[in-house]
Amino acid sequence: MSYIPPMSKTDYIPRPMPPWELIFWLLLDAAILYLLIRVGLTHPDARGIGTHEQLGRPPCSWPILYNMPCPTCGVTTATAHLLHLHPIRAFLTQPFGMALALSAVGMVLGSIWFGVRGESLLFRLSRWNWGLVLLGGVVLLLVSWWWKVATWGG
Q: Counting C-beta atoms within 10 Å of the first and last residue's C-beta, which end of the chain has fewer, N or C?
């Protein structure tokens, strides 16, 4: 196995953003912003779950069937708290939900930044270690689920 030295800033050569990528980011940003606006117009449910019901979604069946929250219980509520500028409530409600909402906002801002610069964000993202990103996301989801179960009031 050969050693590949880490890249320095001078080794990175940005690629121009092709027109199809710009269209991709515009459509993705529009979808993310639509969802964030919809959730931002809700009122975070005081129970820490159930905010998604204000969006016309059915109640989560896990608390009814198992008397415990599902792994994503509270994600919409945490997002609503964050969008209402209550980050501590968002974190305490569902850390994974807060991280997901911050990632969505970051994705929109990043794609705008790269679009204005004319640099390919997809090329930049292709250089990330997605195995570690996925592992970190799964660990955060499981720890957040543990937190939600531990603080579950039933």
A: N
CA angle (130, 91, 71) in 5-degree steps:
65
* Segments making up each domain of the chain, as ranges: 17-150
Amino acid at 119: E
Quote the tokens at residue 144.
Answer: 């957040």
User: Residue 110: phi, psi to the nearest 5?
Assistant: -65, -45
| CA distance to 32, 69, 117, 129, per residue, from 111 (Å) | 12, 34, 10, 19
- pLDDT, tens digit only, all 154 positions of the chain: 566 666 555 567 789 999 999 999 999 999 999 999 999 999 998 888 889 989 899 988 888 899 899 999 999 999 999 999 999 999 999 999 999 999 999 999 999 999 999 999 999 999 899 999 999 999 999 999 999 999 887 6
